[in-house]
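Hey, I'm writing a tutorial for new members on how sequence and structure tokens pair up, and I'd like a real worked example in the thread rather than a made-up one. If someone can provide the structure for the chain below, I'll link this post from the tutorial.
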Amino acid sequence: MKIYIGADHRGFEMKEELKKFLAEKGYEVEDVGAFKYDQTDDYPDFARRVAERVAGDHEHSRGVLLCGSGTGMDAAANKVRGVRATIAFSKEITRAARNDDDINVISLPADFLKSEEAEEIAEIFLKTPFEAVERRARRLQKIAEIEKKNFK
């Protein structure tokens, strides 16, 4: 599985640590930026890069985004058809998001997590399978119908 990772200036330092951690765990990690700390960069640029790559290969990839609160990245990523992103602020919510909603992108709130917490959350995100029972698959189909109507 390929992991696309991106962060703005508030998530930059944690992204650098997290991508090393994921590579050491054997994941193929592609960093889409920021490639240097720049206090004037804008989170939508990185959210879009990650989200479009995941949407283009949703069966073989996932995305990890980092910004201060996670909210900006989450909002931007969810504008890309085929992306189901969530703010991953705890192990429990991340597990539920993967299991119940087949989330394919997480947004980590770097201002509110320690690096070790981010690593644990990322591992849960990458290892938890989607429980494709009928009711959950039905709900994802309804999300896809909303996308078709609103993303023409």
